[in-house]
Amino acid sequence: MRPTIVWFRRDLRLSDNLALAEAASLGKPVIALYVYDTNEEAHMGGASQWWLHHSLKALAKSLQEKGLQLVLRRGDPLTIITQLQQETNASHILWGRLYSAYERQLGEKLKKHFSDSDIITSSFNNSLLFEPWTVLKDNEPYKVFTPWWKKAISGEIDFKYTKAPSSIKPYKNIASDTLNEWQLISPHWGHKFDDQWTPGEQGGKKRFNFFLHHLIENYAKDRDLFAKDGTSKLSPHLHFGEISPRYCWQRVYDAGYSLKNKGAESFLRELGWREYSYYLLYHFPTLPTENWRDIYNNMPWSQSKADLKAWQTGQTGIPLIDAAMRALWATGWMHNRLRMGVGSFLTKNLGHHWKKGLAWFDDTLVDADEASNAAGWQWIAGSGADAAPYFRIFNPTSQSEKFDPEGTYIKQWVPELQHVPAAYIHAPWEHAEKLKSYGVELGKDYPHPLVDLKRSRQEALDRYAEFVKKA
Ligand SMILES: Cc1cc2nc3c(=O)[nH]c(=O)nc-3n(C[C@H](O)[C@H](O)[C@H](O)COP(=O)(O)OP(=O)(O)OC[C@H]3O[C@@H](n4cnc5c(N)ncnc54)[C@H](O)[C@@H]3O)c2cc1C
């Protein structure tokens, strides 16, 4: 019997994988394929590569339990898939849809390549609740989140996930790379994340269960507290498609919650922000590379390598910023509010282009996502669709006073300040003399602030206002 190729992309799971379910239902032998795409457009940062390694390992194990081999190949996906089809005489090629211009083109080219043959190519929605072309206003995309979300949830929202196929007919073993030869784990990241994360479908479901049973109830208020494990931490699992938003949605409803509960509503709305980021990427494919609002195109940006380095390494002398950036380096993850805070600091107070921040996040986040990262950076820089207005500049001092009042989070990541009382920890430069009695001399034990927050804020406001005026 001619086999079916299932091309796994960012849907590294067995349950609610509609391409795999379809393959199983065809009753033909299945080839499970993952292609490590070496094209420039598919570049993946270091932390994400660590995750991918472990996620593929987990997927291979789950497939093996069903008797299937995970075939690993490296190169250009189109070349590899067409070669594999020839090698095996496959009759079907199935995959989950992705939404960047490059990823969509891959699917389109594959369909075109086989269009004059008897080979069936089909793609499935494995990543989203609302595919980008389904929620429009007079055939145009929504440019603001809230009306888009209202419209999206006003329709059919009875999302159901599909269980993993109970049996899948395996194809005979064929040539495959080994995961280790891809060397996805650089010594740089290798050891650091091991005890923090469990990549893979089982790890994602476990974390989801924990969130559902212990955190969702208070999510709306706890999600802002930096020292608290109050959010789902599902972003890397969702990014790699180890769990699906349909799964999350149904499980939330099955547990008796709905959009009417504060915690659940807030969580589902955040899933909505993820969806909206893909929506923007689909309708505005240059989102990761160009200002969505072009009025800022000629804005002068700082070129200071020293400032950028201080930001990246958590040496700015602003405790909350340093804590967040060091936590990112150590864990591959950061709270949403802190992403906004460090983004605001980089683009507004330090005057660096948002692309510098995006690139750093891309390399260091385990959930680095082309859509959410670009939407997040453009939002905070004020250049994006439905962006924060340029005059909204986060004040890291009041943010930490409000959301880390005791300085617990700061002390965890900036141990230089661990003996400093809460009253002085948020803005240590205002208490330089007092700090000495807690063993901290500014400029020696902990840096002086890189910029004066008030002055740099005003300079940013002036810079932006000038461009808004010209527009
Ligand atoms: C500058 C900046 C860059 C960002 N880069 C990324 C990125 O590369 N990858 C990424 O997944 N998210 C990104 N985000 C969004 C958000 O910060 C993370 O999704 C969230 O912090 C992940 O933590 P969590 O899983 O505990 O989220 P929760 O608060 O538990 O939310 C549940 C899920 O909703 C989604 N979500 C939550 N907030 C957002 C948001 N603002 N935008 C889009 N989706 C959201 C995520 O998939 C998340 O897992 C970025 C935000 C900013 C401001």
In this entry the ligands are:
flavin-adenine dinucleotide
- Low-pLDDT stretches: none
Helix segment tally: 20
Largest sheet: 5 strands, parallel
- Order of strands side by side in the largest beta sheet? 3-2-1-4-5
At CATH level 3, the topology of the largest domain is DNA Cyclobutane Dipyrimidine Photolyase, subunit A, domain 3
Can you tell me about this structure?
The protein is 47% helix and 6% strand. It is of the alpha/beta class and 471 residues long. It has three domains: 4-126, HUPs (Rossmann fold), CATH 3.40.50.620; 128-162 and 201-283, Serine Threonine Protein Phosphatase 5, Tetratricopeptide repeat; 294-470, DNA Cyclobutane Dipyrimidine Photolyase, subunit A, domain 3 (Orthogonal Bundle), CATH 1.10.579. The protein has a five-stranded parallel sheet, with helices on both faces. Strand 4 (92-96), helix 4 (101-113) and strand 5 (120-124) form a beta-alpha-beta unit. The N and C termini lie far apart (63 Å). The mean pLDDT is 96. Bound molecules: flavin-adenine dinucleotide (FAD). Flavin-adenine dinucleotide is lined by residues 223, 231-235, 238-239, 267, 270-271, 273-274, 277, 335-336, 339-340, 343, 361, 365, 367-369, 372-373, 376-377, 380.
What are the salient characteristics of this protein?
binds flavin-adenine dinucleotide; DNA Cyclobutane Dipyrimidine Photolyase, subunit A, domain 3; five-stranded parallel sheet; Rossmann fold; Serine Threonine Protein Phosphatase 5, Tetratricopeptide repeat; 471 residues; alpha/beta
